[in-house]
Design a protein that fits this description.
Chain lengths: 136, 136, 136
Amino acid sequence: MTDQIEITLPPYSRGFHLITNEIVSQLDALPETGILHVFIKHTSAGLAINENADPSVLHDFNSTFDRLVKENEPWYTHTMEGSDDMPAHIKSVLTDSSVSIPITGHQLNLGTWQGIYLCEFRNHGGSRKIVVTITS
Amino acid sequence: MTDQIEITLPPYSRGFHLITNEIVSQLDALPETGILHVFIKHTSAGLAINENADPSVLHDFNSTFDRLVKENEPWYTHTMEGSDDMPAHIKSVLTDSSVSIPITGHQLNLGTWQGIYLCEFRNHGGSRKIVVTITS
Amino acid sequence: MTDQIEITLPPYSRGFHLITNEIVSQLDALPETGILHVFIKHTSAGLAINENADPSVLHDFNSTFDRLVKENEPWYTHTMEGSDDMPAHIKSVLTDSSVSIPITGHQLNLGTWQGIYLCEFRNHGGSRKIVVTITS
C-alpha cells in the first residue's frame, strides 16, 4: 500500500530550515509500520535530517557548507546562472535528494533531537516542490 | 509488491555520467504509485541525482570532487590499490550507494532538471552493477 | 508487508565501524524480494556503506573526515556541547541518516566488498539506536 502527496513549500532564504511540521501537518493517519520517503524535485536544494532544537546548528551548517564548496572557484565552467548556482548543485549532492524515516506505531520514529531540513542553496530559490510517499 | 532487476552498466570513464535512460529503458510498466530504488554494488563509485541538461555541470562535479578529496594525501594508509582508490571510497560515501525516486501515475516523478548520475571515481572502474527495486 | 526491529548498538569509539553482522544476526528470515532500510536515531553519528575488508579504509575515512570538517573553526557558534559536537552534526549529514539495501533471494544483495558502517563522530557517543525496516 502506497500513499503519496506533493507539497509546495513557501520560498525559504538561503540556508538550512526545519520543515518537519510543514510535512507532518499535511499527512493523514500513518500506517502501523512503514517508511516515510521525502523527495525534493530540485537540483540546487537538498534534504537532510539533523538537530531540531538549537538555531545555532542551522546557522553553522550554512557557514560550513559555504566554506566546503565555495563560489567563484576558478575551475567552474557552469557559471551562466550566477555564482551561487554550481555550488548549489554540489551541496545538494553532499546533502541528499531524499530522506526516509521509519514509521512505528502510526508515528514517525525520529530520535528526540531529529528534524527534517530543507537545505536551500540558492540566493533566490523560490518555492520548492517535495513528494512525500508512505510505503507500508 | 516488489519488482527487481539487476543491470550491468558498460564501463564509464572517471567522472559523472547521466544514466537515467539506461535505467528507464530496461523497466517494465511502473505501478500507479511507489518508489524506485537504485543501488550500486560497489564501494568506489556512487549514485546521485542532479542536473540533467548541461554537460558543464557534470564536468564541474568531477573537478570539485577531485579537490574536496585529493589523491596522495600524506595521512592515507590504504594505498596499495592505487592513488585513485582511497579517494574513490570517500567520494562514494559523499555521494551515495543508493538513490530513490517517487513513482507517480506510472512514471518516475523527477523534477524537470533531474537525472540519475553514475559517479565513477576510479580511473578504470570497469563495468558496474546496479540493482533496481520497485516497491508499491 | 513491513517488518521492523529496533537495535541498540553498544558504544563505539570515535571512528568508522562495520556493523553488518550486528544487524544481520538480529534479523528473522528475509522476504524473497524487498528493501532493508536502516535508520539511525541520532544527529552526531551516521550510516554509510563501504569497503568491508581492510581496516586501513576505516582508519582513512576517519582521518579524512576529521580534515574535511575540522573542530574549533572560528565561525562555529554552536560550541556549548564540546569541540567535537558541531563537526559531528555536519559529518552525519555528509554520511547519511539511513542506508537501504536490496533484498534478493531472501538475502541482502550487497556487493562482495560492501558492508554497513556506523560512523561515530562523537568522542563519547554512547550507545546508539537504529531502526531496521524491511519492506517487501
